[in-house]
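Figure S7 source data.
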Amino acid sequence: MHFSFLALASSLSLLSLVSAVPQPQATTPPSTVTPPDRYYLKTKVIDGGDKTKDGFYVTSYHTGAGLDDAVLEVTTEHAAKGFLNATYQQFDFNTRDPVSINTGQQTVGFYFNETGLQWDYAEDGFAGWIVCDWWHGLPQLFWKYNFYEYLLPCSCAQVELHPVAV
Ligand SMILES: *[C@@H]1O[C@H](CO)[C@@H](O)[C@H](O)[C@H]1NC(C)=O
Ligand SMILES: *[C@@H]1O[C@H](CO)[C@@H](O)[C@H](O)[C@H]1NC(C)=O
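Tokens for the predicted 2-acetamido-2-deoxy-beta-D-glucopyranose complex:
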């Protein structure tokens, strides 16, 4: 298939952080790894991608109206403190409600295994995490939609997200 940056952008731009909305529990998938009680999510570039995207921590960039983009910074100073609440990947921002990763699809189905944070949405197209240089002047986190064979923009790298104890 041909390269379409717009298709990529629209399928990737759904990832944001919003106040958690309760949803039905997903079943716990097999071979999970229990993360630390509180952790930062750290990138590890895979598939020979751009190594300059290695070792970044997920943090949040406030974009308004309760929405935050998941961006990445090199230090843990502003990094989001994550925790797993059942299969919600949530973050502790000292707000009233826990903040969940919102992929635009569902907020449940998260777990860890040896290759880091997984999202149990594969049959619906989840194919891993991607970091790209984007609008905020910081690399931004996206998820890869499996049903398009697009080339990634050259500023993007496919990453794993590993928990690092706070
Ligand atoms: C776990 O997530 C649910 C759903 O978002 C929320 O209602 C509950 O307060 C969370 N628990 C903790 C300990 O954050
Ligand atoms: C972790 O889970 C993903 C998604 O199911 C899978 O592709 C990957 O191989 C698993 N990693 C390990 C080390 O089992």
